[in-house]
Hints:
Helices cover about 80% and strands about 0% of the residues. It has about 100 residues and is mostly helical. The chain has one domain. Helix 1 (about 10-35) packs parallel to helix 3 and helix 2 packs antiparallel against helix 3.
Amino acid sequence: MSHPGFLRIPSAFLPxxxxxxxxxxxxxxxxxxxxxxxxxxxxAAHLWQLLMAGQVPIVAxxxxxxVRRAPRxxxxxxAVQFVAVLAAAAPVYILRW
Length: 97
């Protein structure tokens, strides 16, 4: 099977976009408030959590549907999704929020 195209499959690009938005949320929070954590979790933290947790069913669907059907195309996209999650989680882990 020929590869269907990254932008034509929502389950391929949505997790990457969600990770990018989560990373942008963390970076915007850092630009506005600085690296010191607040006493209470704010809207940015909740948005980050929702974006990261929302990816799980989408990635699972992609893995079940496309990695089996087209592994030469699906596995690299799955790796990109994994790297995007790591990039979005890295600032939170490094700053120990």
